[in-house]
Amino acid sequence: MRILGIDPGYAIVGYGVLDYDRNKFTVVNYGAITTEAGKPFDSRLKEIYDDMCSLLDMAKPDCMSIERLYFTNNKTTGIDVAQARGVIMLAAAQRGIEIFEYTPLQVKQAVVGYGRAEKHQVQEMVKNILSLKECPKPDDTADAVALAICHGHSSGSALSRILAMEKGKK
Fold first, then answer.
1. Where are the beta strands (DSSP E) in the chain?
2. Model's pTM, two decimal places?
3. Which of 47, 51, 67, 143 is catalytic?
């Protein structure tokens, strides 16, 4: 299964493409889509959409794992990130790519084994799980790779297989 992990944003969209087979991950590609500060926001959204379409067409993922948003302090920034997330999800939906959403707590639990893990602990585990010499940069990219790992671990569980079978019966 080829998984595309996405850490959504409007300045930086981190992505990580991993192949997952029999509890083993293989890195295909990772990086970031960036937009220039000061450009009109609608232009930034179009750039994210266009770059995401290109990434999806090149990587040909079976599914997308994306961070579920939650708002805490800055609602304005959260709304802008949500709009970027929307164009990212639209690009995937147009290609029939199944989308799975995970909270930061779920990602930390799946990658580190502890839902309250610190960012550096998640990054270190990403590096170790994938046998990388260094952690992917920028942080948004490492977070995206962690999202892909989270989905791989979640999709491999017995519960997720049962739920998928039940979903298929409907």
1. 2-7, 12-21, 24-34, 63-67, 98-102
2. 0.89
3. 67
